[in-house]
Amino acid sequence: MTIIWTIIIGFIAGVIAKFLHPGDNEPSGFILTTILGIVGALVATWLGQAVGWYGPGEGAGFIGAIVGAIVLLVIWGAVSRKRG
Q1: pTM (2 d.p.)
Q2: Separation of alpha carbons 7 and 4, rounded Å
Q3: Torsional sign, CA 24, 15, 20, 70
Q4: Would you say 25 and 80 are in contact if contact means Cβ atoms under 8 Å apart?
Q5: How confident is the model over 34-74, as pLDDT tens digits?
């Protein structure tokens, strides 16, 4: 059941991040949007633990997942501009 919630929250976080940071060359589709949200949550957790905002074993919340996904979209846009 945890995996299903992770997928649902990841998808919602990915959709909100793509809404807040629109772009032409973004990953699209259900699977890539879900992966964007899930990886965004992992990035936010890692950064939060590195800075000291979260303790060991604590994860980023929903807002952290959205912020992490936006960070990934900014990086994706910078990398795709250099290639194109």
Answers
A1: 0.78
A2: 5
A3: negative
A4: yes
A5: 888 888 888 888 888 888 888 887 777 888 888 888 888 88
| Contact in structure between 80 and 74 (CB atoms under 8 Å) | no
Selection from 1, 11, 17 nearest residue 31 by Cα? 11
| Local structure of residue 1 (DSSP, 8 states) | -
The three-class DSSP label of residue 57 is coil
Residue where the block lists tokens 């807002």 = 63
Q: Which two tokens stand for residue 30?
A: 């259900």
pLDDT tens digit sequence for 4-30: 877 888 888 888 988 888 877 777 778
Find all residues with CB under 8 Å of 16, minimum gap 6, and list them: 66, 69
The pair of structure tokens assigned to 47 is 């950064």
Alpha helices in the chain (DSSP H): 2-20, 30-51, 62-83
Question: Which tokens belong to 61?
Answer: 């919340």
Token pair in block for residue 64: 């952290």
